[in-house]
């Protein structure tokens, strides 16, 4: 695999960017050889800076839902760009987007738009506090809700005061939730939930019906707001809020990633009961009202409503999962494929130091498939039969390579990787 341009860019980046890269798209915690910089993307594929092509099962860590460069989304964006993007005030497209989104999501009566998932979850947190003038926010232990001081898993620069009113409980455990509430009953502002437990490093967990309905009941009893964070899972499992599949309607829901199919836009949706609270907070950004991402989002939502995108990506995801399971059994490896197939996470059994996982994804990369060794992945509706064939050929190649080295797996090229991962896992817990 060519990497000349990649190595050049990495060296240049180290001179002008802290650590050469930062945030969740840094490859510092991935096996050596994973590309950091990319040159283009189309459909379900990406090309790195050296022109190496990969079927991309990270989908930009989620935003690619309909395919990179989706013709309808790009046409809508270009048409709006010709009219204007960031102006002194929003375009009328903002009203259209809010109308369309509210009409699609069962619990929603209003919408507010922003740029990132962290923006949306932070607005939800402040809205919940404004609702009844309370302070305490309940989060599932280890749950990821963004990168603001009140929720980031990285603790450098964070002080205790940033989280003084955040209380943690165990996901899928109503007894733990009750224990977290005890003593704070008159000061609970809101409870956050993810559609399923999709944190890194550990097996993903589906919520039980009893748990989801129990959280809703507790919020009603406390007159606190239930917030479902759809930033990662939105529109990959349902055309509505994911907990609608469990018969649960949140008071607030946070959306991002897929909303503009790659264009920078996120949203907070809410029920009527939270309208006054949402209207009382101050939340804004110079680029939050830009029209081009909103036009892209209008078209994305249209395709969500009117096409079989969900059925197609689900079919590809299920077939990939089945293929990997057969391959793993054939080569004699135990793998854990957890969470919904559309957002699968693949971990090896008896692989606490991730040596098998790292070796496997590195070999798959050589075969033209971009996987992740400890984070959930994503499928998009642009994946073709040819893409699926490339993917399963690459995973088969990777299993064969792993089998060939037997128990003589090499140590990781960078021992600091595992230390960094351990630190991230500890802070997330």
From TrEMBL:
<dbReference type="InterPro" id="IPR049704">
    <property type="entry name" value="Aminotrans_3_PPA_site"/>
</dbReference>
<dbReference type="Pfam" id="PF00202">
    <property type="entry name" value="Aminotran_3"/>
</dbReference>
<dbReference type="InterPro" id="IPR015424">
    <property type="entry name" value="PyrdxlP-dep_Trfase"/>
</dbReference>
<dbReference type="InterPro" id="IPR015421">
    <property type="entry name" value="PyrdxlP-dep_Trfase_major"/>
</dbReference>
<keyword id="KW-0808">Transferase</keyword>
<keyword id="KW-0663">Pyridoxal phosphate</keyword>
<keyword id="KW-0032">Aminotransferase</keyword>
<comment type="similarity">
    <text>Belongs to the class-III pyridoxal-phosphate-dependent aminotransferase family.</text>
</comment>
<protein>
    <submittedName>
        <fullName>Aminotransferase class III-fold pyridoxal phosphate-dependent enzyme</fullName>
    </submittedName>
</protein>
<dbReference type="GO" id="GO:0008483">
    <property type="term" value="F:transaminase activity"/>
</dbReference>
<dbReference type="GO" id="GO:0030170">
    <property type="term" value="F:pyridoxal phosphate binding"/>
</dbReference>
<dbReference type="InterPro" id="IPR005814">
    <property type="entry name" value="Aminotrans_3"/>
</dbReference>
<dbReference type="InterPro" id="IPR015422">
    <property type="entry name" value="PyrdxlP-dep_Trfase_small"/>
</dbReference>
């Amino acid at each position: 695999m060519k990497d000349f341009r990649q190595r050049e860019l990495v060296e240049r980046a180290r001179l002008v960017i802290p650590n050469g890269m930062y945030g969740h798209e840094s490859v510092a915690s991935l096996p050596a050889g994973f590309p950091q910089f990319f040159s283009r993307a189309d459909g379900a594929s990406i090309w790195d800076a050296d022109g190496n092509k990969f079927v991309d099962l990270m989908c930009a860590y989620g935003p690619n839902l309909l395919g990179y460069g989706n013709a309808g989304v790009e046409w809508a964006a270009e048409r709006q760009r010709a009219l204007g993007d960031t102006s002194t005030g929003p375009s009328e497209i903002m009203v259209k987007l809010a109308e369309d989104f509210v009409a699609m999501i069962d619990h929603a009566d209003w919408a507010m738009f922003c740029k990132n998932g962290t923006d949306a979850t932070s607005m939800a947190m402040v809205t919940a506090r404004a609702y009844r003038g309370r302070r305490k926010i309940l989060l599932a232990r280890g749950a990821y809700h963004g990168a603001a001081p009140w929720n980031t898993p990285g603790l450098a620069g964070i002080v205790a005061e940033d989280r003084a009113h955040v209380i943690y409980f165990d996901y899928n455990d109503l007894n733990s939730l009750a224990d977290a509430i005890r003593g704070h009953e008159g000061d609970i502002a809101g409870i956050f939930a993810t559609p399923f437990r999709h944190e890194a490093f550990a097996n993903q967990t589906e919520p039980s019906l009893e748990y989801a309905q129990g959280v809703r009941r507790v919020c009603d009893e406390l007159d606190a707001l239930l917030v479902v964070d759809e930033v990662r899972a939105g529109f990959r499992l349902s055309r509505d809020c994911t907990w609608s599949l469990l018969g649960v309607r949140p008071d607030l829901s946070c959306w991002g990633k897929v909303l503009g199919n790659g264009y920078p836009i996120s949203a907070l949706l809410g029920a009527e009961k939270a309208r006054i609270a949402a209207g009382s907070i101050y939340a804004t950004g110079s680029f939050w009202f830009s029209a081009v991402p909103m036009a892209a989002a209008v078209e994305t939502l249209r395709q969500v409503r009117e096409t079989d995108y969900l059925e197609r990506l689900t079919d590809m995801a299920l077939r990939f999962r089945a293929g990997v399971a057969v391959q793993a059994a054939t080569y004699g490896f135990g793998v854990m494929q957890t969470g919904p197939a559309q957002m699968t996470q693949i971990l090896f059994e008896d692989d606490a130091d991730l040596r098998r996982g790292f070796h496997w994804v590195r070999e798959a990369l050589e075969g033209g498939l971009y996987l992740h060794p400890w984070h959930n992945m994503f499928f998009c509706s642009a994946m073709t039969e040819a893409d699926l064939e490339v993917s399963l050929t690459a995973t088969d190649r990777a299993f064969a390579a792993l089998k060939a080295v037997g128990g003589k797996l090499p140590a990781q090229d960078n021992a600091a990787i595992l230390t960094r991962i351990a630190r991230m896992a500890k802070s997330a817990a």
